[in-house]
Design goal:
The protein has about 500 residues and is α+β, with helices and mostly antiparallel strands. It is built from 14 helices and 24 strands. It folds into 3 domains: about 1-55 and about 150-335, ATP-grasp fold, B domain (D-amino Acid Aminotransferase, Chain A, domain 1, 2-Layer Sandwich), CATH 3.30.470.20; about 55-150, no CATH class; about 340-505, Cathepsin D, subunit A, domain 1 (Beta Barrel), CATH 2.40.70.10. The strands form 5 sheets. It has a 7-stranded antiparallel beta sheet. The chain has a 6-stranded mixed beta barrel with strand order 15-18-23-19-22-21. A 4-stranded antiparallel beta sheet has the order 1-7-2-3.
Length: about 500
């Protein structure tokens, strides 16, 4: 079925179908005892705790209808998740986003991500369905789990409709093979479930950058038909899904390998969510990982799996290196082509231009201005709006007199708050800029947090060349001792670039 679904897609490599997955990878590499462990979320939690892998906190385990009646509802938090212990495909999972302040029909009630209210009785009925095996494999009797709802990581939160996204990594014999980000939508009701309407986004293994995004076609009679989408859905501001980096990427790859090995599975899907406070946390292992991940990555699994069969993996780091070398690294060029932006490093080699100081007379009364240049390292810092230049570097490129002039001014060393600093700037900025002693070099004043204090600093114009592009911009002259690099390039100047934080510096 999956091969038929993908036949019209631009997929590289041989597609892995369900039957071949089961016959060639699940049965030979996943022993029965290991599948029994990972098919149970409770046993999985116990296993992972032994190797110090974080999982969501467990609040309650309900094994019988009698326990439902004895459940202490007042001790339930405002937000939580209910899951079947042996559920498949995300079925039976309900996320509660908050608690209703007022009673509903004389009962406590909780709110789902789509705004739906479920009363205590509604939740009891759902738990009963879990116990009856409605959502479990083979419809066998099951156990209901109530656990914490993770707090969304700040980077990923902006792409989600209320729920928490997760990263699915397929690992085979100690090597990450393929990865996918699964994003909750309004349609999926806060769960990262592609069949329920969540978005799947491919991830480049080498960089952790997102690639192709897919969403289930609601009009199709076949569940596994997906459309390629460019941006998020149902948000106030829908954001492009291609080209952002997954936080904790190296740690996620390492955790996925450790989980695969500890589980006893040779072929495993590892589901990892990123909590705001605790970082990556594993909430599920899968002995039969779904195959739609191939669509999001525009690549078949089979060739990758067969290649890894022939490789001896020495250790976890070796497994990560193999994954990056063999199955990653192509995304940068694709992203550059689509976005029109060049991918740059967190720290870049930069040519900075000095103030023109030397004039050379030429024939016919023409004057040529000789301008020196210096090569430095600049830190690309999206956390600041306006760029900053160290006062030593500023002096080196010709602004020493400007710095001396500013330091002679009767400017307070620090301010109590930003409002006081801005009030001071409004009062004196014009006179300082227009002062003939300034020679037009201080173009404005700026307030910054420097060395633990709020200060007012001069702003100058400088020019640099980065990746062959000449950029002229404003820079605050700073004396901040914590500046490891002499130039911090702020986000105003980075609109034409995409930053890959995994790469520190190009020699």
């Amino acid at each position: 079925m999956i091969a038929e679904i993908l036949q019209n897609k631009n997929i590289t490599g041989e597609i892995l179908g369900i039957n071949r997955r089961n016959q060639e990878y699940v049965r030979p590499y996943n022993p029965r005892w290991a599948k029994k462990i990972v098919d149970s979320k409770l046993l999985t939690k116990r296993l992972l705790s032994r190797i110090n892998i974080k999982t969501p906190e467990l609040f309650f385990v309900i094994r019988s209808k009698k326990q439902i009646n004895n459940l202490d509802w007042s001790n339930l938090p405002k937000s939580f998740v209910i899951k079947p212990n042996r559920g498949t495909g995300g079925n039976g999972i309900i996320v509660f986003y908050g608690k209703q302040k007022k009673l509903v029909n004389d009962q406590q009630a909780w709110i789902r991500p789509n705004g739906q209210i479920m009363t205590q009785r509604d939740i009891q009925l759902h738990i009963e369905n879990i116990l009856d095996g409605r959502f479990s494999m083979g419809e066998e009797k099951d156990i209901a789990i109530i656990e914490e709802r993770l707090k969304n990581d700040a980077t990923l939160k902006q792409y989600c409709y209320k729920g928490v996204p997760d990263v699915r990594v397929i690992v085979f014999k100690g090597v990450p093979i393929m990865a996918e980000l699964r994003i909750p939508t309004k349609e999926s009701n806060g769960t990262a479930n592609l069949h329920a309407g969540g978005i799947g986004v491919g991830i480049d293994l080498a960089s952790g950058l997102t690639t192709v995004a897919i969403h289930r076609n609601k009009k199709s009679l076949i569940d596994d038909i997906y459309d390629i989408v460019d941006s998020t859905l149902d948000l106030d501001i829908n954001l492009p899904l291609r080209g952002f980096r997954i936080p904790y990427w190296e740690e996620i790859l390492d955790i996925s390998i450790k989980c695969q090995k500890a589980s006893g599975l040779g072929f495993a899907g590892v589901d990892i969510a990123i909590d705001r406070d605790n970082g990556p946390m594993v909430f599920e292992l899968n002995a039969r990982p779904g195959l739609a991940i191939q669509i999001a990555n525009m690549c078949g699994l089979r060739d990758r799996l067969e290649l890894v069969k022939k490789i001896t993996v020495k250790n976890d780091k070796h497994g990560i290196r193999i994954a990056k070398d063999l199955f990653g690294g192509q995304v940068e060029e694709d992203i550059e082509q689509l976005s029109g932006k060049e991918i740059v490093n967190l720290v870049e080699k930069v040519t900075i231009y000095h103030k023109p100081t030397t004039k050379i007379k030429l024939k016919k009364n023409k004057v040529k201005i000789k301008q020196k240049i210096s090569t430095i390292r600049g830190l690309l810092d999206t956390g600041i709006t306006t760029s900053r230049i160290d006062d030593g570097l500023a002096a080196q490129i010709g602004f020493s007199e400007t710095i001396r002039h500013f330091n002679k001014l009767d400017i307070p060393k620090s301010f109590e708050n930003y409002s006081d600093a801005q009030e001071y700037i409004d009062k004196v900025e014009k006179s300082i800029v227009e002062d003939e002693n300034n020679k037009g070099e201080i173009i404005r004043l700026a307030k910054i947090f420097e060395d633990g204090k709020i200060r007012v600093k001069p702003v100058i114009k400088i020019s640099i060349k980065m990746r062959g592009m000449v950029i002229e911009f404003e820079a605050i002259i700073s004396t901040q001792k914590e500046m490891i690099y002499p130039l911090l390039i702020g986000r105003k100047e980075l609109t034409g670039f995409l930053i890959d934080p995994s790469k520190t510096f190009v020699r």
